[in-house]
Design a protein that fits this description.
With 327 residues, the protein is of the alpha/beta class. 56% of the residues lie in helices and 9% in strands. The strands form 2 sheets. Strands 2-3-4-1-5 form a 5-stranded parallel β-sheet. A two-stranded parallel ribbon has the order 6-7. Helix 4 links the parallel strand 2 and strand 3.
């Protein structure tokens, strides 16, 4: 058994899902508002909007557990439907209405239905859902989780309290990493935490997946291991490659490039993104920097159209050397 008596071998994104609102990471304003909802039991229809992996679905489950108790699903108080799997109007007519129309036997007098990825519903299904919200608001509260709020029709938005989730910041990633490392017996170096934040871009689900995969290779988690597991080019490697090109050491730069492409399996898009990020720190004139950024955009397009990545990247590195000589 693992932490909290949970069975070993399950994905960490499930193992470390918040058990209550107090465990939700880096969404303090939203948690404070939802605690007020818990105290008053005055639960509105809600939309949880924000990018993937920031805790929208997990927060809905935590709210339901705090509201109804540990058996919130088994006792029939809570139902989750993923709209990306079942997008049509039949889902609304059958599953949603069947759940919403029944009166709960105990609890605060209503159920909660979570419609995950609700922005994937067709417009027709959303209009049907709006009518269900009106018809069964006495027996059911609806929580819609959406990555893109603008894909939810206005009549639904106007009937809901909207909570906007933000990407998890580095302190939030650190908090989760420390919790997992303590429970799993991992040693995570300081630079590895920064690397996890870097590769996740605020997606806590990705942090847990990368960390669990890295732990299979080693109980000591380094920044290099994080980048390799994530299939990404480390910022240091790309910076070094570009510095070598600036110094005219194209053979050495080529070795780093080939290592990333053919040994580490880094995607061409990731190398482009890293080069773009590092382009703002390269010691060249601003006019030359503009040329470099334009070239990176052109190379990105050529690769997307089937050009050979190594040849394209070597063109960028050769151009860097030429720009350094003109500076």
């Amino acid at each position: 058994m693992g932490p909290d008596g949970m069975a070993e071998g399950i994905p960490w994104i499930e193992k470390y899902r918040p058990k209550s609102l107090s465990e939700v990471i880096d969404q303090e304003q939203i948690v404070r508002a939802l605690r007020g909802v818990l105290e008053t039991k005055n639960v509105p229809h809600m939309i949880f909007a924000g990018p993937p992996g920031v805790g929208k679905t997990a927060t809905a489950h935590a709210l339901a557990r705090d509201l109804f108790g540990e058996r919130y699903v088994e006792d029939g108080h809570f139902l989750e439907i993923n709209a990306s799997d079942e997008r049509g109007i039949d889902v609304i007519r059958e599953k949603v209405k069947t759940f919403a129309r029944t009166i709960p036997m105990a609890g605060p007098g209503f159920k909660v239905l979570l419609l995950d990825e609700s922005d994937m519903l067709t417009a027709e299904a959303q209009h049907a859902f709006r009518r269900v919200m009106e018809q069964f608001s006495g027996t059911c509260r609806f929580v819609l989780a959406a990555n893109y709020l603008n894909r939810i029709i206005e009549p639904i938005q106007s009937r809901c309290a909207v909570f906007r989730f933000r990407p998890i910041d580095e302190s939030g990633v650190r908090q989760m990493v420390e919790r997992v490392a303590g429970a799993e017996g991992l040693r995570v170096e300081e630079r590895a935490v920064a690397a996890l934040y870097d590769v996740s871009e605020g997606d806590l689900r990705k942090v847990l997946n990368v960390l669990q995969t890295a732990s299979i290779y080693s109980r000591s988690i380094t920044a290099d291991l994080v980048y390799r597991v994530a299939g990404l080019a480390g910022a240091v490697e790309v910076r070094r490659m570009m510095e070598l090109a600036l110094d005219g050491k194209l053979d050495e730069a080529k070795r780093i490039l080939r290592q990333a492409l053919y040994v580490d399996g880094v995607s061409e898009r990731e190398i482009i993104n890293r080069m773009y990020a590092e382009a703002f720190y390269v010691p060249i004139k601003e006019t030359d920097r503009a040329k470099l950024l334009s070239l990176l955009g052109e190379v990105d397009y050529r690769i997307s159209q089937g050009a050979t990545p190594e040849v394209q990247f070597m063109m960028v590195l050769a151009s860097l050397h030429a720009l350094s000589r003109s500076s």
